[in-house]
Model the fold of this input.
Amino acid sequence: MSTGTRKPDDQFYREYILDHYKNPRNFGRLEHPDISHEEDNPLCGDVIGMDFRIKDGVIEDVRFHGRGCAISQASASLLTERIKGLPLEQAKQIGKADVLGELGIDISPARIKCALLSLKVLKVGAYGLADEDEEE
Done:
């Protein structure tokens, strides 16, 4: 992409992603989680795990751990911020477009799996579902 075609807010979102990468929200482990699940992206080596504490059908607390690129780590940080306090049924409705929209920049096809790894952890871990709309 040439610099002449860059959207004016691209720089803001790049800094936003870097902030979530360098200062991740909800990073760590929960003691005695109700649900704990981990997934990896074998293509690049990224790993994301999440621990959930559920109370009365609501995600009372969530933490993520793992390692990987700025996109996968920022995406996990953003997703945990979004789902903390949500009813499980509402969190279940979060999809690919929501996660990519939160990142705010165009994600190349090679990085889509990085961006969606945390969503896969949520869907498989909390609901036992494969993310049917992950592939395009």
